[in-house]
Specification:
The chain has a single domain, classed as Alpha-Beta Barrel (TIM Barrel), CATH 3.20.20.140. Helix content is about 40%, strand content about 15%. The chain has twelve helices and eleven strands. The strands form two sheets. The chain has an eight-stranded parallel sheet with strand order 1-5-6-7-8-9-10-11. Monomer. Its EC number is 4.1.1.45. It is an enzyme of class 4 (lyase). InterPro entries: ACMSD, Amidohydro-rel, Metal_Hydrolase.
Length: about 350
């Protein structure tokens, strides 16, 4: 267990506006997610005419989540949209409209509680020009600190030229990117047992990370800041196999070095639950590339953020980095703006 009181940042925390825009009614398309309040303390997200997920008011009420953060010892949450709201399948202009509404909301929460929250925006990833323009607005006008993107856009992986144009623009602007799985590979075979969350998402994340590496963009922009959620899913565990494929089939090589060389440039959250899994990641990538994140406020979340770090026998300096300091550096924050009281 951690012996010191460390500054703690929950890098992986989702939020949705309580007055989420009703695009189903506006555009006559029930594929758009909608929010139907069931009481003062809860709501349901609907999509495709049926309930997608039940949520509590901590999903949109910053006061409720601050109370929980205080209970759990979390100093700062990094707010990002819920992936179902990406809506990359939609007309790009409508997706941009939805992105702007969410980015404005997240910026308003950060402005109201600037010492407790940091914001990540969303963009219409299916259209690089619109995505880049909204990234510029989110960062330069709204003051958000990065962009969350899905693991694919309408089946196009992260090595797609249109998506790479956006990622390249983020690299040039030094904007951090957070990749979250959505529209997972093999979803049609995962209708039972909630496998989409427990198996589909980790597999999807591995596909996204592998695609990014083979795109060559990490070779071109070695300082690109990009983090994969859920500990990179299954990616760390199949990386040796990806390397072996690169060695075995010279015709598939798109980079000068094998994939594991570039994987060391990636960041990951620590949401892997098992200390042995986290130790495996530390051995692979080091403690400088790992950031505690909980997946707040959903049922699979870790309570508190960084619990798996706390229980490990590690130098306190390494715990300090993973629990908060790495996120501060990754997002370019001034830590002094977020400390409520002296850290003991």
């Amino acid at each position: 267990m951690s012996k010191e009181k460390h500054f703690r940042v929950d890098f992986h925390a989702h939020i949705i506006p309580g007055n989420f825009p009703d695009f189903e009614e506006k555009y006559g398309d029930n594929r758009f997610p909608t929010l139907k309040h069931t009481c003062d303390c809860g709501a349901e997200i609907y999509k495709d005419g049926k309930s997608f997920r039940k949520i509590d008011d901590n999903a949109w009420d910053p006061k409720k989540r601050i109370a929980q953060m205080d209970e759990e010892g979390i100093d700062v949450q990094v707010l990002s949209p819920i992936p179902v709201t990406f809506a990359y399948w939609a007309d790009a202009e409508k997706c941009l409209e939805l992105s702007k509404a969410q980015n404005d909301f997240i910026a308003s929460v950060v402005a109201e509680y600037p010492n407790r929250f940091v914001g990540l925006g969303t963009v219409p990833l299916q259209d690089a020009d619109l995505a880049i323009a909204e990234m510029e607005r989110a960062i330069n006008e709204l003051g958000l600190k990065g962009i969350e993107i899905g693991s694919n856009a309408n089946g196009k992986t992260l090595d797609d030229p249109e998506i790479l144009r956006f990622i390249e623009a983020a690299a040039k602007m030094d904007v951090p990117i957070f990749v979250h799985p959505w529209a997972t590979v093999g979803v049609e075979r995962m209708k039972n047992h909630n496998f989409m969350y427990s198996i589909g998402m980790p597999s999807e994340t591995a596909l996204a990370a592998g695609s990014l590496i083979f795109s060559g963009i990490l070779e071109k922009y070695p300082n690109l800041k990009i983090c994969f959620s859920h500990g990179g899913g299954s990616f760390p565990y199949v990386l040796a196999r990806i390397d072996q494929a690169w060695e075995s089939w010279p015709n598939i090589r798109t980079t000068a070095e094998k994939p594991s060389h570039y994987a060391k440039q990636l960041y990951f959250d620590t949401l892997v639950y098992d200390p042995k899994n986290l130790q495996f990641m530390i051995d692979k990538f080091g403690t400088d590339k790992l950031m505690a994140g909980s997946d707040y406020p959903f049922v699979l979340r870790e309570i508190p953020s960084g619990k798996v770090v706390d229980v490990m026998e590690l130098p306190e300096e390494d715990k300090k980095k993973m629990l908060g300091e790495n996120a501060v550096k990754f997002l370019g924050l001034n830590k002094a703006n977020y400390i409520k009281e002296p850290v003991k």
